[in-house]
Amino acid sequence: MAVYTDVSDEALTSFLTDYDIGDLVAFRGIAEGVENSNFQLRTTQGDFILTLYEKRVNAQELPWFLGLMQHLAGQGVSCPQPVAARSGAMLNTLAGRPAAITTFLPGVWPRKVKAAHCRPLGQALARLHAAGQSYAPVRANSLGPDAWKPLLESCRGQTDSVVAGLEAELDAAFDHILPVWPGQGGNPDLPRGQIHADLFPDNVFFLKNMLSGLIDFYFACTDILAYDIAICLNAWCFEEDGSFNVTFARQLLLGYDDVRPLSAQERAALPVLARGAAMRFLLTRLYDWINTPADALVTPKDPLDYVKRLRFHLATETLDGYGV
Amino acid sequence: MAVYTDVSDEALTSFLTDYDIGDLVAFRGIAEGVENSNFQLRTTQGDFILTLYEKRVNAQELPWFLGLMQHLAGQGVSCPQPVAARSGAMLNTLAGRPAAITTFLPGVWPRKVKAAHCRPLGQALARLHAAGQSYAPVRANSLGPDAWKPLLESCRGQTDSVVAGLEAELDAAFDHILPVWPGQGGNPDLPRGQIHADLFPDNVFFLKNMLSGLIDFYFACTDILAYDIAICLNAWCFEEDGSFNVTFARQLLLGYDDVRPLSAQERAALPVLARGAAMRFLLTRLYDWINTPADALVTPKDPLDYVKRLRFHLATETLDGYGV
């Protein structure tokens, strides 16, 4: 939970004069969010979200993210829509930070995932993928397979503080992922496009079990579409005790197929993609776990959940093995 | 900035069925706030604030606070108004915590105080005091003069880590406050009533330099009315460099007098009340500074600002000495 940069009322009022969205009515920091500072902003014309981009986001990439959100919203995907200033610019500066205003999305993210969430989730993910096909700019996945070994290297010597033997376990796990990764030994022809790449429950809003929108596109990138499903299998389909919920996974895949039927090749690749997704979140959590100062505003997430998920995926060779 | 207790969407939906305020539309944690967990809540009927009361608030005192807010709102003071459940109860339970819903107040708190804020502030404070006269229940000030020596005792031995010699300085300062405190050597007949007792800039909302409301009544108590002005002198009338802003103080007192003219006795007591107010905030900040664990969600406020303010007040015997 975080607001890293505070914004003075005077600076905000001045900033808003560059926009045609009415006068300031209310302004509160939002506790959710880890990477950026987010504020709920009300004007005489309605509700908006103001985001100040903090250091972990590469400012040069912001136009790509905002362009994607604008494109997706234009294609009917319910996501925050960047609001342009009078100048036409979606990205401006406030309190010394790149800043953008987006539309406010109603809904509440599910603290406890239920089966009823997973089919709408799959449908929304497939719609995002379909809508992204016509967004041409490319952003490489900076947390893809090439980033994993360097991430582990930067934690080397400290990894076993999380679980004894973890470092050797991860070294060995790479041999079961990288050589069979799509394009690196695995199928090189899986459909690619714009993926969300971080579609955890706190980025998906629901109203009465109807999905009302997707948020937080700041890990989005151009990658294998089915990898996004593999991320959701990790993020949505495990119980708190670490067990895999087959019902949730079935609903997720059913929902996806409702909109964009997965090919046999994509289905076949899901287990290795799921291993890779577990590895990716394990490694960034491991890195944050080791490198977050004790007095940081944000409590790092325990990487242990993803150690368990990785082990589960490594023990499973095919989608049948998941019971899906 | 803090949300200490998260609330599941299911628990919230269930909680809301006890209220006649429509269906859930959105729900976000608010970053501001130190003592309790606050959420911005939108329903099909409008906007509300949901507060979960955390451990530092005495649950038995919550009806007093909520009753005061209801009373003040009923008297035309712009403050959050508790929303009763269908049962009539303003205080209920959510996620194992006492919880209340209040109305949403538009406005933005001033990050940088200007003279234009101070007269409306004084007027609002006087209106609060006038409106509070008809709220009969009494709550003693748990952070009044009787609490100060025990607070310092609990920090003894660690106080000088803030500034060398601070412990002896505070011991000596008591001799210039307690024996002349109203009722303890000073004038025993100053008007008393319900005071806010924590009216810092972040608890006062403005819209275009018009004061739109007061929030956070969880330090309110029954005490000397002029003590609330003394708190505002400390909280609003010092520059970042520690210098006293006479213009702000004049505007504050002018505003107060607009609504409820201060008596000569109250004016004469202001310097010692201002010393006491500086001591009170100095001591709680000192306590938090020493006792907040490094990994706490909230960064404690530096007590040093209040050491400087206390020194300033101790050097001033009369309101004329302030230049007011």
Automatic annotation (TrEMBL), chains A, B:
Domain of life: Bacteria
Enzyme Commission code(s) on record: 2.7.1.39
Reaction it catalyzes: L-homoserine + ATP = O-phospho-L-homoserine + ADP + H(+)
CDD domains assigned: HomoserineK_II
Domain Aminoglycoside phosphotransferase: residue ranges: 27-262
Pfam families recorded: APH
Molecular functions (GO terms): ATP binding; homoserine kinase activity
Keyword Zinc: no
GO biological process, alphabetically ordered: threonine biosynthetic process
Pathway the protein takes part in: Amino-acid biosynthesis; L-threonine biosynthesis; L-threonine from L-aspartate: step 4/5
Keywords: Amino-acid biosynthesis, ATP-binding, Kinase, Nucleotide-binding, Threonine biosynthesis, Transferase
Family affiliation: Belongs to the pseudomonas-type ThrB family.
This protein's name: Homoserine kinase
Organism per entry: Acetobacter cibinongensis
